[in-house]
Amino acid sequence: MSIFVKICGLRNADDVKAAVAAGADAVGFVFAESVRQVSAEKARDASRYMPGRVRRVAVMRHPENSDWQKVMDVFAPDVLQTDIEDFDYLDVPDNVERWPVIREGHPAIDGDLPEVFIYEGTQSGQGQTVDWHRAATIAGRGKMILAGGLGIDNIATAIRTVNPYGVDVSSAIESRPGHKDPGLINLFIKAARAVEKQE
């Protein structure tokens, strides 16, 4: 089974086309404060002609419920990705998948893990890697999507070490902060898919 790949921090239709053409399984639009932040309207317009097989992910962090409701109403994502504790107060309908972010060192690691979860460091979009050996001890307890500091040069080692369900990349596939590079997107996905996953 090939690894699930999410391309995050997309900002326009050209970014989306590049990610889809390269074979991404999911694309993320950031609504939290970031150089990659977009409005719900921009995300909706950028993803208007995406194939249904690619999941559209709303990436947030500690949003007000009203902010989430606007994103849901305007953008209508397939998935909400936000910190695990945020799901305690957000109104998320059953037709939207939940991808909780569990940050390295979070107490949730010691409990029952969600079916699908993002595992990353304390900050998002900063190229911050987690301890891959520690991540490897958690990866088999759910569908872990490994994030943080992944790039073309280290993705093979990361996948072999952690054996995650999927991987998530943002800053390493940019020509400069917030500007995606189609060539780097393509190279990243090729490098990730070239690694044989352990079954």
Describe this structure in words.
- Helices cover 28% and strands 23% of the residues.
- Helix 1 packs parallel to helix 6 and helix 2 runs parallel beside helix 3.
- The protein is globular, with a radius of gyration of 15 Å.
- It has helices at residues 13-22, 40-46, 65-75, 132-139, 155-162, 182-193, and strands at 4-8, 26-30, 55-59, 79-83, 97-103, 116-120, 143-147, 166-169, 174-176, 179-180.
- The chain has a single domain (4-193), classed as Aldolase class I (TIM Barrel).
- The N and C termini lie close together (8 Å).
- With 199 residues, it is of the alpha/beta class.
- Strands 1-2-3-4-5-6-7-8 form an eight-stranded parallel beta barrel, surrounded by four helices. Strands 9-10 form a two-stranded antiparallel ribbon.
- It contains six helices and ten strands.
List the defining traits of the structure above.
alpha/beta, single chain, 23% strand, two-stranded antiparallel ribbon, 199 residues
Shape: globular
Mean pLDDT metric: 94
Q: If classified by CATH, what would the architecture be?
A: Alpha-Beta Barrel
Give me the side-by-side strand order of the main sheet: 1-2-3-4-5-6-7-8
**Which sequence of SSEs, written as H and E, runs from N to C?**
EHEHEHEEEHEHEEEH
Largest sheet: 8 strands, parallel, barrel
Quaternary status of these chains? Answer: single chain
Task: Please provide the count of β strands.
Answer: 10
The number of helical segments is 6
pLDDT under 50 segments (min length 5)? none
- Say which CATH homologous superfamily is assigned: Aldolase class I
CATH class: Alpha Beta
Q: Roughly how much helix do the residues carry, as a percent range?
A: 25-40%
How far from one another are the termini?
8 Å
Whole-number count of domains: 1
CATH topology: TIM Barrel
